Amino acid sequence: MSTRVCRSADDGKMIKDNVLKTLLSAEGFVSGQELCDALGVSRTSVWKAIEALRADGYKIEAVTNKGYLLVKDETADILNQEELERALETRWAGHPVIFKKETGSTNDDIMAMADQGAPQGTLTVTVCQHAGKGRRGRVWLSPDVGNVYMSILLRPQMDASRAPMLTLIMALAVYEALQDMPYDRNKVRFGIKWPNDVVVSVDGGPYKKTCGILTEMRMEEREIRDVTVGIGLNVNMTEFPEEIKETATSFALALGHPVRRAQFVADIWRHFENDCDVFLRDGDLEGLRPAYEAGLVNIGRAVRVLDPKGEYTGSAKGITADGELIVIPDGQKDPVYVGNGEISVRGVMGYV
Fold first, then answer.
1. pTM of this prediction exceeds 0.90
2. How far apart (Å, rounded) are the C-alpha atoms in residues 25 and 41?
């Protein structure tokens, strides 16, 4: 009995996907009978598919003796398999892309697919994680509240010591995708807090975090087996738990309007692919350093370096080709190069 229910659900999704593809390719109304004949299903199945698509956010007109018309709405925020495939314009990043309404952890999903031989560029996207992972074993809250959680599979041919720089590249790609959006640069400022926090300040207020990035590398006989880069983005979330609302926000709250997630995701991976290609070609971040430093909010600001060997303050000057933060400690002339490891960097008066 349970097998029949699962098969029915799968069939319903397939019918819905095929109805959507037919409506997207049509130049006008498509009659219900045409959909029935083309897909080999009943009118009831077509009607259920139409209702399911409306529930997803698609605007579909139904007119007697004409049929159904998909109304193109460039402002609608619809995130699903079809919209992601339509929006992605990359060569390898996001091919294939797998969308799930919910999952345990997209990083775990990618590593499981890697074990089955998935190619570099395989991407998983979801709107809800039940076991999202943060840095150092922390749990990443991943509710279905308009956000995006995704992970990509990489199989880089490089020394393992270079892999952590992929985390900086991920942050850079998000920052660059945000720069593609139209918004008031005098009111809103997006940036990168070293090494990989994408932050935003509104009306000159404090910078707040908008995403989390976790890179996991697996080794095999001292060589990189694969790298999974995961990212959770606060996109259209409007409320935050009491314990983080002073330091976290979303892109929608900063911009004052919802963000079309499918296009935003596509823009991120377009930039990531381009930046990653440069990194893999050069073997370091030298070619990407100007772009990264253009978004680096630490530059010229006082920072507090939380080194296990001893905390100190200084002024941040930029990054090295290896992604280290260049800091001039107070009272010194020579720079210190802070690596992206166990050392944390904070602002002297706050988060940034």
1. no
2. 19
